User: What shape does this take?
Amino acid sequence: MQTQRHSLIEILGTPDVRFVVPAYQRRYSWGLRQCRELWLDVQRAARAQAPHFVGTLLYAREASDTDGLERRSIIDGQQRLTTLTLLMVALVRYLEARGSALADGDAHALRDCYLRVGAGKRAAGKLVLSRNDRDTLFAVVAGAALPENPAENIMQNLAFFQEQMEAEGFDATYAWSGVKQLFVIGAETGGADNAQLIFESLNSKGVPLTTADLVRNYLLLAESHEEQARLYDEYWGPIEGMFQPDPGSLRLDNAIQGWLSVRFRKVRAKGPDEVYSVFKQYVEDEFDGTTEGLLRELRNFCLVWAENYRYHAVKKYKSAFSWATNGAATLVSGRPLKKSDDEAYAEKVRADLQAVDESL
Assistant: This one.
């Protein structure tokens, strides 16, 4: 793998290329803080008129589309590329509203170069996000009607950039000169295993990856594009949906830790930061099933966990579902219930407590 320095806007403007965020990737999650940082980077670069480093971009080439457009799968860097796209949407709208242009072209030329790809009626968004964000980005790029439930971060961050450009003293030419100075270290990778290791090691200014992000990526990255989409739709999408709203993926991360505490009892994560490493140890050293089998079991566990989001959800899951049906036998299968696990005993304790309360 070779790395090169690339202008971020030149990457986005690569002719006849569509950038695709795979199904295993997390949603667009940058908020106002990260947008302000990028906007400040633009101002700094414009002021210094010197290249300004803003992170990394890791991608893999895929088979071309039926219309001959090259596809590049974004492994790392989608947050930055999406935010730059939103900045460009705001800039195009600014120029359109005023009938003005930059040295590199008017609003129409900028849209065709950096936001859309293809010709005529077949033109479509250059950046293709994951399912939950895709339609919203397509709509704002095309200036079309928004979907019924538009992606909140996309709309919020687009509004932020529009507000900056409406502020007194904004100079589109000055800002554009800063955008053109932003650069990333880009790399193309050819193997899923290599991509996974690099993905885990990269550290950027963006929102830290959650345990759920790392687990999803680990399970889906090695699959084909079509298999990724199928496994996401059938398993991971429902898993995420069970815990919404779930800011920071706290509930889902907690559920994954709970599942591991049942499935892999001989190694315990001592805190949230250790959950992913324990997960990898279990999958690589203990688990001998299929990815789909693991996802099916995790989905079933999360169903019960989400409905009983408290400490005893693991116990309810062990009693409510047949592990022999949902997956291979666990390391704790067949363990006799302790007295404190027994529901009849718990009911008796509650009754005794109620009797005490009523006697007071």
Observations:
- Residues 310-314, 316-338 have pLDDT under 50 and may be disordered.
